[in-house]
Specification:
Strand content: 25-35%
Largest sheet: 6 strands, antiparallel, barrel
Order of helices and strands: HEHEEHEEEEEEEEHEEHEEEEEEEEHHEE
Number of domains: 3
Radius of gyration: 36 Å
Distance between the termini: 83 Å
Helix content: 25-40%
Number of strands: 23
Structural class: alpha+beta
Strand order of the largest sheet: 3-4-5-10-7-6
């Protein structure tokens, strides 16, 4: 009886394990499949129409410099100072201004989408004269305008410079660029960009890198998510989305839902080469037709050794230097490397590494493969 109970318990355990194993096996397959599939969020590859930044720019003066400002040859700086003082009730002639603690600068800032009045922005200050440094300076009130000519922010505050410059006599030392600085939180928004986001009936979703395959996948994904035929592709970069009725008063929730979707973006086959730095970037889908590659270097070395020739004693000859030239030719003998048709980029790289090629050599090899018509990808040289 005891033995029969033990056998029944053992068979029950086995049956439980058999029931569990298929589930474990399926989960293992899903984990492996998920690890192989590359997905990106929609918000990382696309953006919604109307949600964009705006560039702001302005002209201003930085004061309080310790003799490192614009020199007297910068007439526009002197005229700007005279006009500023006149607006403040101080009349002064431009010819009477001879100061070197003021610098004319351009101020730039980026107005984010949906920015509200009273919010602060960081701005960048850059010298446009011959100032040596903006260290220790203060930016005076500067209007910042957009491309439409309207003032959207004003900037003012101390300038923070991430560098320094010092020297004298015949020497000078400089770190980074002291003629460019930042005014942290120095721009105050005075006007908002009009945006009726919640009143939209349609949304426009635009890919940052147009691709017909990716935009088609994204359209199907959005329609499955919304359980509707709300999405429609316009071209390789744009999808128009009709706002469902349940999101008509809360488009923010719809945008948040769509931005969080995961999609597997497609990519073109491309090899990018930078000849200046010797950088080679190869896309995942690059394929090469069947061909044989051999790469070797020919080096010629010439050495000259001076040899002194002296005449015999009591002879009328002269001592002369006779160069002895030695020439050696060395050619590397590398075997042919066979590349099968349709191999992956990993196999190509392993094969080229077996030839011992350098990045510079790799550039020449890919150019030769492209010339032979065996590179099934776009070759871009930057």
């Amino acid at each position: 009886m005891k033995k029969r109970k033990q056998e029944e318990q053992g068979s029950n355990k086995i049956r439980k394990m058999i029931k569990i194993l298929p589930g474990v096996f399926v989960i293992g397959i899903l984990v492996l499949w998920a690890s192989d599939a590359y997905c990106a969020r929609v918000k990382d590859i696309a953006g919604f129409g109307g949600v964009r930044e705006n560039q702001l720019v302005g002209y201003g003066l930085v004061v309080g410099l310790n003799g490192t400002g614009d020199k007297k040859d910068m007439e526009f700086t002197i005229l700007s100072m005279a006009n500023m003082l006149e607006r403040m009730g101080v009349t002064v002639r431009a010819n009477d201004i001879e100061v070197e603690n003021v610098a004319a600068v351009m101020v730039i800032a980026t107005l984010p989408p949906f920015a509200k009045t009273g919010s602060n922005l960081d701005c960048t200050v850059s010298s446009i004269g011959d100032a040596e440094s903006l260290e220790g300076g203060v930016l005076l009130l500067t209007p910042l305008v957009a491309v439409d000519g309207n003032v959207y922010a004003v900037a003012q505050g101390p300038v923070s410079v991430g560098g320094f410059s010092a020297g004298g006599g015949g020497g000078k030392i400089q770190k980074n660029f002291p003629t460019v600085g930042r005014v942290v939180g120095g721009a105050l928004i005075e006007k908002e960009v009009d945006s009726n986001f919640n009143g939209k009936e349609t949304l426009s979703l635009t890919l940052r890198h147009p691709d017909f395959t990716t935009v088609s996948r994204l359209e199907k994904l959005i329609n499955r998510t919304l359980d509707d035929h709300a999405a429609r592709t316009v071209d390789a970069a744009t999808i128009e989305i009709a706002v469902p009725e349940k999101y008509s008063e809360n488009i923010v929730a719809l945008v948040s839902l769509l931005e969080g979707l995961d999609i597997n973006p497609d990519m073109a086959s491309k090899v990018v080469i930078n000849e200046r730095t010797g950088t080679v970037v190869i896309g995942e889908k690059v394929r090469i037709s069947t061909l044989a590659i051999s790469h070797g270097n020919l080096s010629i070395e010439i050495k000259e050794t001076p040899s002194v020739s002296q005449p015999l004693p009591f002879s009328a000859g002269e001592t002369v230097v006779v160069p002895e030239t030695e020439i050696s030719v060395k050619e590397e003998r590398n075997p042919l490397f066979l590349v099968e048709s349709g191999v992956s980029i990993g196999e190509v790289v392993r094969g080229l590494n077996a030839l011992g090629v350098s990045p510079r050599d790799l550039i020449a090899i890919f150019q030769a493969i492209k010339a032979a018509g065996a590179l099934q990808a776009e070759l871009e040289i930057i």
